[in-house]
Amino acid sequence: MTANQTTALDLAKTFVEALEMRDADLIAPHLADDVVEVIPYSNTGKTEPWFVFNGKAEVVSYLNTIAGNFSRVSLLNQRYSVTDDGTAVFLQAEGDLVQAGSDAPYRNVYVFKFEIRDGQITHVDEYANPIAFAVLTGLPLG
């Protein structure tokens, strides 16, 4: 593995560790100021992204929302792939989360794509089944 690939993989793993520890401060120093996180799939079935978080402050705020809404965040069976040039990392994992307050289990399948530039995460795509989330939260479908 090249140095760029190792750095990229370490950044992706730190992002996941921050999610699982429910501590956005762990990943914040590794996010570019202009980082973007996109959640493409929505409960409406439309092709526009459900959420787009622009800039470090919005991404950190989103990650803190996860920490507040879930008392447990675990990504199981993590499978990473790193591009040859070390500019992107893909992660597939099964989410095993518990909703804070209700203790309701939340299971989903995730695919993340992390884009890396100059040793920082510049873009995150978070793919998950929006139906599973809608069922958990009572959001309408369609």
UniProtKB/TrEMBL annotation:
A Pfam family cross-referenced in the UniProt record is SnoaL_2
Instruction: Report the coiled-coil segments.
Output: none
Transmembrane stretches in the record are none
Q: Which domain of life is it from?
A: Bacteria
Domain named SnoaL-like is located at: 13-123
| Cross-referenced InterPro entries | NTF2-like_dom_sf, SnoaL-like
The protein depicted here goes by the name Ketosteroid isomerase-like protein
Protein species of origin = Kineosporia succinea
